[in-house]
């Protein structure tokens, strides 16, 4: 990932995922769309407080808000998480190769 806009996008995604409340909101939305009031209730949060978290998730592209009159619902959009998974995957390959080399070293030492 070399494009500055892509790097900024990744920063937004990781910032959004860095907060446990926002991760909990995403877990809830993984079950399907939910109204803002439904999202706030289990956390004992005000609508204003949950809206701030939802704004961060929306800015990262992880959710979409839909309005039906006065009712506002949120929908999970997990697509941007693929960008984060791709970035993490590069390091997974790094550590896997290190572990493979360590295993090879240990096996050679046994003989």
Key features of this structure:
111 residues; alpha+beta; Arc Repressor Mutant, subunit A; 3-stranded antiparallel beta sheet; 5 helices; 3 strands; elongated
CATH topology of the domain at 4-78: Arc Repressor Mutant, subunit A
Shape field: elongated
Just name the CATH architecture of the domain at 4-78.
Orthogonal Bundle
Q: Unreliable segments (pLDDT under 50, ≥5 consecutive)?
A: none
Strand order of the largest sheet: 1-3-2
Identify the CATH homologous superfamily of the domain at 4-78: Winged helix-like DNA-binding domain superfamily/Winged helix DNA-binding domain
How many strands, what sense, and barrel or not for the largest sheet? 3 strands, antiparallel
Structural class: alpha+beta
Radius of gyration: 20 Å
Which H/E pattern describes the elements?
HHEHHEEH
Into which percentage range does the β-strand content fall?
A: 5-15%
Q: pLDDT average, as an integer?
A: 88
